[in-house]
Design a protein that fits this description.
Pdz3 Domain; about 25% strand; single chain; six-stranded mixed beta sheet; 2 domains; 2-enoyl-CoA Hydratase, Chain A, domain 1; six-stranded antiparallel beta sheet; globular; 21 strands; alpha+beta; disordered C terminus
Length: about 425
């Protein structure tokens, strides 16, 4: 904290002003935490240099209390709560990024597909240094999100960097109404390709429509499906369960365990596989988080799909939205449980390890990116630990050949596997 000394005022006078005389009683009264909070507010009202807004103070106090628990718990004021509900419906105004608090920094988890942020070159793992010239260091996550949102057509100026060694750069982004199409699909020869960008209210219904359409397009020669969960930041738990159930004929999907033993919930698959038993390859990377990791873990443990790519983000906790005080109180987004894959694995701070490790980067590019910025739950300050004592084994990855251009090496590798071809790659 900076201390400013005014010329002509003695140090003794400054100390007297800054630190009033101690309580005269020999044994000062003991304060409960609630009394301390009230006393702090009274002191702010009496001594702060300007007028203060009680509502703002209370919102900030609640957010500070909750956000200190872990990187994913936070308080949403009424406006933010309403915006979250719009996001779950797949539409909101802003630039289209998922961010989290990493110590004192605001970090991009995912720049969503087909959004102003993605088009402006914002990358997963970027650190947002300033927003419209205001430093984000120590800024509350909710404040940063609020500053980046705004009416469609308005602009926001960000300073971003990608790792400590990277020079920061300024980006001006025009806000827009972001409509997140959670499911996209297309025919890739005799393979059905399905991209799930997030898990919102209509994801499961959209997936079922996509699979049905691909069956009609490809017909009896259909060889299998690629389900792309890369850079999918997650979303609604019930949608992740439904999507997993779509491809499973039975068995466990996921279990969630809260603080008390009786809070454990287990979710199981029903009969019926919309893919008719066809081979499935699921693509994951370090941007695959939360609900998308539930799907990858369920299909992996049930031997229903081959998981291909790089180790996922490792967010193995469940956040519950708890409304406060009706419409005027906002809501808590509170970590209430951890989730476990069908085999009982907690992926918290560990992630889902792929069955087949394939990188989209050459070995040199991958080494440089790891040195620049680590993207994982385990790298976030204050993250919850995993109960698993064993870490994911390090697997030798297949890399694209140096000097050879690929639009998407991981996808090409997956398609080659489903088509029975030998991928053109250098393996180490």
């Amino acid at each position: 904290m900076k201390r400013v000394v005014l010329a002509g005022v003695s140090v003794a006078a400054i100390i007297a002003c800054a630190f009033p005389a101690a309580h005269s009683a020999t044994n000062p009264p003991v304060r409960t935490p609630y009394e301390l909070l009230n006393e702090a507010m009274d002191r702010v009202h009496a001594n702060y240099v300007g007028s203060v807004d009680d509502t703002k103070l209370i919102y900030s106090a609640i957010n500070g209390m909750v956000s200190s628990l872990d990187p994913h718990s936070s308080y949403m004021d009424p406006k933010e709560f309403a915006e979250l509900q719009n996001e779950n419906r797949g539409e909101f105004a802003g630039i289209g990024i998922e961010v989290t608090k990493d110590g004192e920094a605001i970090k991009v988890v995912t720049a969503l597909d087909d959004t102003p942020a993605r088009r402006a070159g914002i990358n997963n793992g970027d650190v947002i240094v300033t927003i419209d010239g205001t430093s984000t260091r120590g800024m509350a996550l909710s404040d940063a999100i609020d500053r980046m949102r705004g009416p469609a057509g308005s602009e926001v100026k960000l300073t971003v960097s990608h790792g400590e060694a990277d020079k920061s750069r300024e980006v001006t982004i025009s806000r827009a109404v972001v409509r997140v199409a959670s499911v996209k699909f297309e025919r890739k020869g005799d393979v059905g390709y399905v991209r799930i960008a997030s898990f919102s209210e209509k994801t499961d219904a959209s997936l079922q429509n996509a699979i049905a359409d691909l069956k009609r397009q490809i017909g009896p020669n259909l060889k299998g499906y690629v389900i792309d969960l890369r850079n999918d930041p997650g979303g609604l738990l019930d949608q992740a369960i439904s999507v997993s159930d779509d491809f499973l004929t039975g068995g466990d999907i996921v279990s969630t365990r809260g603080r008390a033993a009786d809070e454990t919930q287990r979710y199981q698959a029903n009969a019926g596989d919309i893919a008719d038993g066809k081979p499935i390859i699921v693509l994951i990377n370090e941007g695959t988080a939360s609900a998308s990791e539930i799907v990858a873990g369920a299909l992996q443990d049930n031997k229903r799909a081959t998981i291909l790519g790089t180790t996922s983000f490792g967010k193995g906790s469940v956040q519950t939205i708890i409304p406060l005080g009706g419409r005027v109180g906002g809501a808590l987004k509170l970590t209430t449980a951890k989730y476990y894959t069908p085999s009982g694995r907690s992926i918290q701070a560990l992630g889902i390890a792929p069955d087949v490790a394939v990188s989209n980067q050459t070995e040199k590019e991958e080494h440089d990116s790891v040195q620049a910025a680590k993207r994982s739950e385990a790298a976030l300050a204050g993250h919850l630990d995993s109960e698993n004592s064993e870490r994911n084994p390090t697997k030798a990855a297949v890399h694209p050949e140096e000097g050879k251009k690929y639009d998407d090496f991981q996808l090409s590798y997956a398609l080659d596997r489903l088509n029975g071809n030998s991928p053109d790659a250098v393996s180490h």
